[in-house]
């Protein structure tokens, strides 16, 4: 993919710094006004969305080359999309898409961090982004009576995801999800030899490998006659739903996050939370479920030359507004006695957990710094428990919460405890 296709977007940047902060109309006080972890940590313009767009133009003009310093700036970014939605609060331009393009250009030009070489080698060889994973991928399901949808017909496929399969601490999320679906009478199955969704490969610039993983998954589910895919992982949700549409691979498959599914089942009366929980919680919006989970908007056309940016046909931009925000909160509010206390940065302007975009592997210290910032914001609400809806977020935030009184749980674990 040529970086040239993003030239108009990258040259559109006017260096207003809107990409660095929550929009002024949304700001609720002096604290917690930053939206981009990278610029907040490194405090140098190159580490912002706008700064990286300028770097993209410089690459096209050959004013800079592909170097280790470029790698450092480009990959100290969670690709969380905070810069993108903040810019689009007032502008019609993409910030995140060119950043994907810059990473893909790095890969195409052979500029790859050694840690990503290891991860992608694992993906190519073992279909997982978890290098060195020795255990069987389906060990998490031991003792549960679940169909193998590659051998038995099942209407619903539950995609577990690499992180959850190989991290025993996350197994309760998958086991709770399956148990609740079965309790609601759903015909659900898994693929014991599940392929990675390809989402993280796309985030770090390996577009070809990402598409390959998606194609493999879609082909298996189509052959099995699966009508609905459900996942508790925000990154997997984004890959199957958003990237699936972007690459024309979804082919009518309904993709739901567990929060969407169980909110629907509770509204239909198929599940009813009964146990009372007299606690105060706060909710963390995962980037790939929230602003990046907004449906893909296809567009083909051209920009009309001129000082005012117009498109033929008119172009609609994804602004993060239609991500999955309601269902997780509806589930929490359905639990008797539970009080939800929101953080200041929520929904499309939520602060990232720090784990995305390859940062957890490329620069663990920066990932941990980002997570600690979110824990500080969660503590300020006075909540006893921080609830999220993604295994990557849960892992990052749980580690950052060590030494505090704040408990970190996945939404599925909490829901299972009251059903």
Fold and architecture overview:
- The chain is of the alpha/beta class and 419 residues long.
- It is built from 18 helices and eleven strands.
- The strands form three sheets. Strands 1-3-2-4-5 form a five-stranded parallel sheet, with helices on both faces. It has a four-stranded parallel sheet with strand order 9-6-10-11, sandwiched between helices. The chain has a two-stranded antiparallel ribbon with strand order 7-8.
- Helix 9 packs across helix 18 (411-418), helix 13 packs across helix 14 (326-333) and helix 16 crosses helix 17 (391-400).
- The mean pLDDT is 95.
Number of helices: 18
Tell me the series of helices and strands, N- to C-terminal. Answer: HHHHHHHEEHHEHHEHEHEEEHEHHEHEH
What is the CATH C-level name of the domain at 120-267?
Answer: Alpha Beta
Number of strands: 11
List the helices and strands and how they pair.
Elements: H1 7-12, H2 37-42, H3 49-60, H4 68-75, H5 82-87, H6 96-108, H7 114-126, E1 147-148, E2 156-159, H8 162-166, H9 171-183, E3 188-190, H10 199-203, H11 207-224, E4 228-231, H12 234-246, E5 254-257, H13 258-267, E6 280-283, E7 302-304, E8 310-312, H14 326-333, E9 339-340, H15 359-362, H16 364-379, E10 385-388, H17 391-400, E11 407-410, H18 411-418
Parallel strand pairs: 1-3, 2-3, 2-4, 4-5, 6-9, 6-10, 10-11
Antiparallel strand pairs: 7-8
Helix pairs in contact: 3-6, 9-18, 13-14, 16-17
What attributes does this structure have?
419 residues, alpha/beta, Rossmann fold, 5-stranded parallel β-sheet, 4-stranded parallel β-sheet, 11 strands, 42% helix, globular
